[in-house]
Design brief:
alpha+beta; single chain; Cytochrome-c3 Hydrogenase, chain B; about 400 residues; three-stranded antiparallel β-sheet
Length: about 400
């Protein structure tokens, strides 16, 4: 006999609202229906209705509390391309360091959540204790642990000063010394292996077909990483390689275990990138235009459209921006967060597994639902379902409107 088990929109295993309706036969999952749109904040609308594009930067920071550097980075890269704004080399290095600090804290936060979903709360608390070192470093450099308010068109708002460098190097050594211990706790524990090996498999074919991104797609053996494929900031100066699980295990399974492997190796890679950036960071200015009114005047005169892409901790983040000459704020701003792509992978990952596997499999893509959800269209209090053809036609119509 088949019946439906609703997971969410409010559920202990979900930190944000979303509904996963699983059809089960006994304990086996036979069908999966994901229902998003439980939360709509209107971020894009708010961002396009600020008094000027600088104010929108701080709205972009709040698209996602964890990825609060990536989103303004995407917005700013798009605007810089349209308005032809130069960025000093030192600022590009600082942007790289900020990006990798965010990746470390995001991956360690995820690792703790993953341990919690497995019922391994002692490992949750240990991992988050380890994460405090990077959070302290972020506070030293930015003045804040979470929202950093450091990005600006044409550079960054704060420098990495000489007195910051010893603290950052202390953090680097801390994680280098601790990596083997953390990796052993996650990868050699018998219980974790039993709960994650061959659980939530996403094949390479499905990962490509569903356009998964970030650690989710790399764990399936796809060597895709924006830092490697189309380098930005100072990443052309670094030898960044997409991390896949076979680099450690010698094989690719594409399961939940492999997604743990990829994130742990990426923490190690981020530490190495930060160390190299500190060693090679050039002197000089950190912003091309100090006077905000002059900067805004240049942006106001600009016209065109561009896309900003950033390899966020969860995967490729994309912001589309259109500027119109004489228009005070952003004419168009559209955000595609990584989870918007990765969430489609839940269905093949969950099929034919057990009900008890749902929390860790769902968590294995590191979902961020508040930056993913979209509004539901209703007419006369009834939901309006849109077919693939409807969505295509609406996309064509919207594109033509934006191109006018």
């Amino acid at each position: 006999m088949k019946y439906t088990v609703p997971i969410g929109p409010i559920h202990p295993a979900l930190k944000e609202p979303i509904a996963i309706n699983c059809t089960v036969s006994g304990e086996e999952i036979t069908d999966v229906d994901v229902v998003a749109s439980q939360n709509h904040r209107g971020i894009e609308w708010i961002g396009m209705n600020r008094n000027n594009p600088v104010q929108t930067i701080y709205i972009a920071e709040r698209v996602c509390g964890i990825c609060n550097f990536c989103h303004p980075a995407c917005l700013i890269m798009a605007v810089e391309e349209i308005a032809d704004i130069d960025v000093p080399e030192r600022a590009q290095y600082i942007r790289v360091i900020q990006s990798e600090l965010e990746r470390i804290h995001s991956h360690l936060l995820w690792a703790g959540v993953a341990a919690h979903e497995l019922g391994f709360d002692s490992l949750l608390h240990y991992t988050w204790m380890v994460r405090e070192k990077v959070m302290d470093t972020l506070e030293i450099v930015n003045g804040n642990r979470v929202t950093k308010a450091i990005m600006m068109y044409g550079g960054v708002r704060r420098d990495i000063k000489d007195e910051h460098v010893p603290k950052i190097r202390e953090m680097i050594k801390y994680y280098q010394d601790l990596f083997d211990k953390v990796a052993k706790l996650f990868l050699e524990d018998k219980t974790i292996k039993m709960r994650t090996r061959n659980i939530g498999i996403l094949t390479k074919e499905d990962a490509l077909k569903l356009q998964a991104v970030g650690p989710t797609v790399r764990a399936s053996g796809v060597k895709k990483d924006v830092r490697q494929d189309t380098p930005y900031f100072a990443y052309p100066d670094f030898d960044v390689k997409a991390i896949t699980p076979d680099m450690l295990t010698g094989k690719v399974v594409g399961d939940t275990y492999d997604r743990i492997v990829v994130r742990l190796l990426e923490v190690k890679q981020s530490v190495e990138i930060i160390e190299q950036a500190l060693d090679e960071m050039p002197p000089g200015e950190i912003i091309s235009e100090q006077k905000i009114p002059k900067l805004l005047a240049k942006i106001k005169r600009a016209e065109g459209e561009a896309i900003g892409r950033h390899e966020a901790p969860r995967g490729e983040d994309i912001h589309y921006v259109k500027l119109k000459s004489g228009f005070e704020s952003l004419y168009t701003w559209k955000v595609r967060a990584p989870t918007y792509s990765n969430i489609m992978a839940w269905r093949p990952m969950l099929m034919h597994h057990q009900i008890a596997d749902i929390p860790i499999v769902a968590a294995s893509i590191d979902p961020c639902l508040s930056c993913t959800n979209r509004a539901v269209v209703t007419e006369n209090n009834e939901e309006k379902w849109l077919t693939a053809e409807d969505l295509h036609n609406l996309s064509v119509k919207k594109t033509k409107e934006m191109m006018k």
